[in-house]
Amino acid sequence: MDPSLSASDIASSTKPLSEASSPPVMDLLSEPASEASSAPMVDLLMEPASEGSSAPMVDILSEPASEASSAPMLDLFMEPASEASSGPMMNLLMEPASDDLKEPPKPDIDPLADILNDTPLSEVKTPVAAMPQETPSDLFDDEPSELFAEPRQSNTAKQQQTSIFDEPDEDLFSEPLGEASKKPQNDFFKEALAPVAKASNVCGPLSDNYNEHPTDIFTEEAMTTLPSAVSTVSVNSKTNGVHSDEEEPDIFAEATVELSLDSPRNDRKKKEAAKPSASAPAPSVSASASKPQPKTLEELEEEVEDKFELNISITNPEKVGDGMNAYMAYKVSTQTTLPMFRSKTFTVRRRFSDFLGLYEKLSDKHTPNGYIVPPPPEKSIMGMTKVKVGKEDNSSAEFVERRRAALERYLQRVVFHPSLLQDPDVREFLERDDMPRAHNTQALSGAGFLKMINRATDSLSKMTIKMNESDVWFEEKLQEVEAEDQQLRKLHIMVDSLVGHRKELSVNTGGFAKSVAMLGSSEDNTALSRALSQLAEVEDKMEQLHQEQAASDSFCFAELLADYIRLLGSVRASFDQRMKTWQRWQDAQNMLQKKRETEAKLLWANKPDKLQQAKDDITEWEAKVTQYERDFDRVSATVRKEVLRFEKEKACDFKKQIIKYLESLLQSQQQLIKYWEAFLPEAKAIA
Amino acid sequence: MLFDRPRAVNVDLQTDATLQVDISDALSERDKVKFTVHTKSTLPNFKQNEFSVVRQHEEFIWLHDSFVENEEYAGYIIPPAPPRPDFDASREKLQKLGEGEGSMTKEEFTKMKQELEAEYLAIFKKTVAMHEVFLCRVAAHPVLRKDMNFHVFLEYNQDLSVRGKNKREKMEDFFKNVVKSADGVLVAGVKDVDDFFEHEKTFLLEYHNRVKDASSKSDRMIRSHKNAADDINRIASTLYTLGTQDSTDVCKFFLKVSELFEKTRKIEARVAADEDLKLADLLKYYLRESQAAKDLLYRRGRALVDYENANKALDKARAKNKDVLQAETSQQVCCQKFEKISESAKQELIDFKTRRVAAFRKNLVELAELELKHAKGNLQLLQSCVGVLKGDT
Fold this sequence. Notes:
Number of helices of chain B: 8
Helix content of chain A: over 70%
Order of helices and strands of chain A: HHHHHHHHHHHHHHHHHEEEHHHHHHHHH
Oligomer: heterodimer
Radius of gyration of chain B: 27 Å
Mean pLDDT of chain A: 64
Shape of chain B: elongated
Strand content of chain A: under 5%
Number of strands of chain A: 3
Shape of chain A: elongated
Strand content of chain B: 5-15%
Distance between the termini of chain B: 44 Å
Low-confidence stretches of chain B: 1-10
Helix content of chain B: over 70%
Strand order of the largest sheet of chain B: 1-2-3
Largest interface: A-B, 138 and 124 residues
Radius of gyration of chain A: 33 Å
């Protein structure tokens, strides 16, 4: 295996990185089906580079960087033919490890080079030579060296992969690409004696709060995972008994991953952020964008809370009317100490289109100035039709609840925006009892159609405007926003799919529960029958649990993403707005230029009668140019401020929501433990 | 990798040092799997005490069929044949992966590949386990272990040159099965003289159907569990991308969450894999074993019907006083056959129950323990991660 591995790697390492993954794929696809059939596997595996392409499936499977898992297998394959007769399991297990020690380290590095597709090859190569260097400043420096150290350490730990059924999985999972960055773990473990020193080393040049994180992380992780190491060991020793003590380093090492992952990258990120901004006209802003964030964020939060007490909640969704004219009305309750409101608590009823109307008004007023106006949830003809038709099923109740929560978040975002809160329309929306019906919000109305046309022309003009960006900050931010938008969309699709699969799992678990209950009833051993019906009960509860989890996947996670996909749309709109004002300024400048030329021509032609007119024009356009330039500067400043504000809010939101989501996961695991703990004695009671 | 898998997962067998069989190794070669069957024995009819041969799935089937066709073994539950190795689904996905390569990012591609590899490995291991269980069952059986074919299977170190059945034979098999099941219905309709067998008959009929249902339902449940785990995997990788491209401090947060998901999805996948191993495979095995027990009851029922018919024929012959001797012998043959089957069948069915209860106990206990282990691991990960994240904000 080693020769073929290294050969293919050498081949791939000469290619551009993007192609690095293709050789194995070709293997995967063509080979298993082709000629490899007759040659026994062992041969193929041992055959050198020339045969690399005809390696059968298993070979392919073991190829990508999973050196540890496949190597023992090989050895075993070769063994039994000969003297395996008396050799006890131990023997078989020990051998591969020693083999690995000698051989794989070299080839190991290359697959990982492939894997780290963002790692320039040169950078990987060098540290191989200067292996034990641990300059924390460079992320890449660390990794390869660890990779080098890896097989030695992990192979001893991984011997037991041969022993327990589920162990190899771990290997397969943990080795390849996605986790390449985790490699440092072993190294870190080795250095576990001085991790704090290293951590502080990494973070030294940074601000205080960064200095704190990594150390914190390390200690916490290490402490909490230690018991887990112990527990796994104990379980393993039951089935296995031989290698239990060797598992520890592996698991412990994982605990340190956090640290190694974080700090160097952070460090690097900092550098990247610092570099461009040094040349940017506003370095201070961009620096502040990335560095002292957490602190200022908290300050801002406090300020917000100090300045105005304003709680908004939306409750009691209610269907009003019947048939296709039915709509949902929501109760909007406000609690506030702000003097600008007439009373401290008040409630109004609003329907969905009122929310849309509010957005239209705010957007018309504030978007031109570069503000990021939070968008309301989208219209959903499908969902609403269901509600209108009056189907009282789960999905329509879920739809209503989802919308209610989305509207609540939307309104909260609006009022938490210091400028938008001052808008009279917002106040009116919150306070006024007899709100005039919002118009032009129907998706399919004529106005909606007009809006669509407007949007189309907008995007057309966007394409035609070629802005030679003077401010790197904006250029970068826009790119960032676009990339983020793309990723969030992808993530959203995946979370949706998770929700779907979890729901499916819930349904299928329910089906299985019923089936097991039936099986239990026909079982004629009393204890077994009882245990089976207990199992059915456990599965029943799991059905519920999966369903709840699916709901929290959807409410905590998917909705958050949907919100931010919409918000990023608004962010882009504010960038577009800036571009538009820039365009106007440029046009004015061109005009001024023309007028000046006219003046020059008139002077040349000596036509004093028209000269005055031209001069007036020039002063007029000069004023316009200054005006537009000021506009542009103002919008730019606003956009910048808004984007920073948005990012702070986003960070805060994501943290809050995701932690909430993780807590929901945590709870369901706790429930799970309870259920299975109750079941275990029942299973043991079967006799 | 195949070696320390708990042996004979689904059957609880008394270990006997005189004949121990296991599959020490297996290779996958295209659509074939070659098993190295390793035997340790002190029985005198083997040339050596320890030896290994390479066998393929078809040879296992041949061995099974030879048991089924042997009249001598009519009174025993023939250990069910292992199912055919099936890598089709895995291969199909592999193809899809290749087709979709261009449209995926490198991370996605790797993730997909990881999933496939894990899946392939799992199927591979299962295949080996099922074949091993079959051999262990035979080796532990007091009568079948002495079978000549079995010994040849274990010892003859050349290809047994067993070929797969051709079309004609498959057709014949099919018709035989149709006839058998029609006959089975007929035979099952006959009221049994023995209460024990009557009870077993109704029990097995129902049990078989329910275990079938449970088996398919468990498969479905596990599949969706795997899908969910795969989703988490992809979410983790997208979060990772998000974390590396963002320049704010949220990126750190994303990376941490990504890492957490990476770990939890591993656990989720393991939960699914363990459920597959401890639950679905158990049910699948007892689906086949209960079928084998049903077959035994059918053979007994058939013998009983034959015996009754022979009795009638004898009565008739006596009445007519014609061919009495011939009728008497045939009646005696039928009687002997029936009694022989009944005698061993009773013990076999009792054994079947003991085995079943023991296997269910073992697997359910292990399942619960594994579920607990995984849930606790998961909980710990989540707790520490939430702790860290909360400390961060």
